């Protein structure tokens, strides 16, 4: 995660400051995490998937492409997950629709 934050830090314009919303997964909140000076982490409250649009993306993928099936092997799981991911990224409008929150938009 520290390496991921370092990469994000490189994308923050000089003189600017990045803010990342993160759930409270252990690897997001560990004291060992090295957070660059130009990034702040804002933790989401625990057990609030409605505040984390990514949770809705995962749910969409499970509901439409990954649930109610029998996986035949580890490779089969990986292949089907990759297929689902590729189907999703071919539909950017779907990602935007799932991730939007009417109540989070300004008027």
The tally of strands reads 2
Largest sheet: spatial strand order: 1-2
Q: Outline the biggest β-sheet.
A: 2 strands, parallel
Strand proportion = 5-15%
Distance between the termini: 35 Å
Overall mean pLDDT score?
A: 88
Multimerization status: single chain
What's the Cα radius of gyration?
17 Å
Helix coverage percent: 40-55%
Low-confidence blocks of residues? none
Number of helix segments? 5
Number of domains: 2
CA-based shape: globular
Structural class: mainly alpha
Walkthrough of the structure:
α2 links the parallel β1 and β2. The chain folds into two domains: about 45 residues, no CATH class; about 55 residues, no CATH class. The termini are far apart. With about 110 residues, it is mostly helical. It is globular, with a radius of gyration of 17 Å. The longest helix is centred in the C-terminal third of the chain and has 16 residues.
């Amino acid at each position: 995660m520290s390496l991921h934050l370092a990469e994000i830090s490189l994308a923050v314009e000089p003189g600017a400051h990045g803010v990342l919303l993160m759930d409270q997964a252990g690897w997001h909140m560990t004291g060992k995490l090295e957070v660059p000076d130009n990034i702040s982490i804002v933790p989401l409250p625990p057990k609030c998937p409605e505040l984390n649009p990514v949770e809705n993306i995962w749910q969409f993928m499970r509901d439409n492409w990954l649930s109610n099936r029998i996986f035949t092997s580890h490779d089969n799981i990986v292949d089907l997950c990759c297929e689902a991911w590729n189907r999703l990224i071919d539909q950017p409008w779907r990602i935007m629709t799932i991730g939007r929150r009417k109540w989070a938009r300004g008027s």
